[in-house]
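Format notes (please read before filing issues)

Several people have asked whether sequences and structure tokens are stored in separate files. They are not. Every record keeps both together, in the order shown below: the sequence lines, then the token lines. Line labels are part of the format and must not be stripped during preprocessing.
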Amino acid sequence: MDEESPLSSDLQDRLENAGQSGAQSGTLALSERTGYVGDDVTIMGRNFPADTEYDLVWDTVDGDWGVLEGYQIVGPQYQPREVEISTVRTDEDGRFDVTWTVPEDFGGEHKITAVREGRAVARTEFEITPWFELERTTVTLGDPLQVVGYGLGPGISHSNFQLSWDNSYVGFLTGVRNRGTATAAVTATGPPGDHVLQVWRNYRGVPFVANNTQSPLGSVAGERTNTWTVTVTPPESPPETAWVDDLVAEEPLDVHLLDVETDPDADLSITPQCGPAGTDAVVSGTGFPANETVDLEWYQHVGDGIRGISVTPTPRPGVLPTVETDADGSFRASVEIPPAEGSTRPIVAEVDGESVVQTGFMMQPSIETFEPRRGPVGTEVEIELSGIGWTAYESAPFFVYDNKQLGYACGASDDLRSPTVRTVLRATGDPGYHFIDVYPSLFEVDDDEPEFEVRPHLSYLDNHPVRPLAAAHMTFEVTE
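Then the structure lines:
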């Protein structure tokens, strides 16, 4: 906005009133006081000393999940953060105008401060309103449909949003870890035709259906839409029957390894360090006694916290081989990763029953059993998942059938013989394809506000605690 551009009467009044107050060394004003991530806003300075340089600073926070010992979820945690927007210089009349794009950041009010030589001299505020975008409104049956939210949180009234499909609550999304941006994906379920996808908000973890009519917090997404009509088209070929989201490279968490003394001269490693059941890996050791027998032990976290049975790492016999070192005290052993409990799996090398050194393998999810894959209504469908961990942020995989919540299973067990999650579901629905999605959830969160516990976490892609978790997806065909 140049000097000759007309100002709105409201903005002109704010500039004049602030300049007459004498409370600041100058006046900051904005072309808009509220807006969305990605908007262009003009920051205007008036009544400042002439030909003087100022830093414009944006006050915000960094967010993450508070997690103790890589296991217990405390809740969302936020720390103050400052970001320099721009450095400006006033003209001979003590004025400046600068155009600024609202960054991807948390919703709510943020201070913008003019700083001179480390001292705040003027301040204004801008409020980010959450909004959502849908990648497309036409999608093939069974394909994922992505929703991205911007400007979520951090306050409890704006950090827990819910997504519904045809008025059925699917799960929640939150921007705790990603500066207010959250990516959610749901499956396009049938029958082919038009369906309604909607975003709601409520810190209690379930949709507050008066969001846009009687909520004291205002509408969900300001003046932008939070409801879409999605056209689902028939597939040209049968959908994929069973798959897991793409897995990312991970390293084992040291906090989940054993608390044992080891030989500092010995080394134990496994390559790769992560993967699902069936991964071909190589365990290598150096610095051991020459020509010695080494027992490789695979550990499973055993216990059931919900019944008061403490979860402890326990060796699971027969998973890894016994090997012999060579004349240099080294060995290499090829192994196939078995179906197992998820998260970090400690691996210990023992000589004469004594621990020598340890490493770890990050166990990732896979679908071990999904059968049968077609049949009439009422067919019993057996599902077995490997790589479901014991920690509070991964131990409760939540099953959703045709975008309707069904329930959760438990990834922790007090039985060494049960390292996987197994359930039997009944096929329902009209003839055609039906979809089972298994999403991560949060089993326990110490902070009760907002409410995140035991619900499908749809923004697990970029906002789940500690580590990225993959969802599992299955397609069942109901026959006549």
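For reference, the curators noted about this record: Confidence is low (pLDDT under 50) at residues 1-8, 14-23. The longest strand covers residues 72-89.
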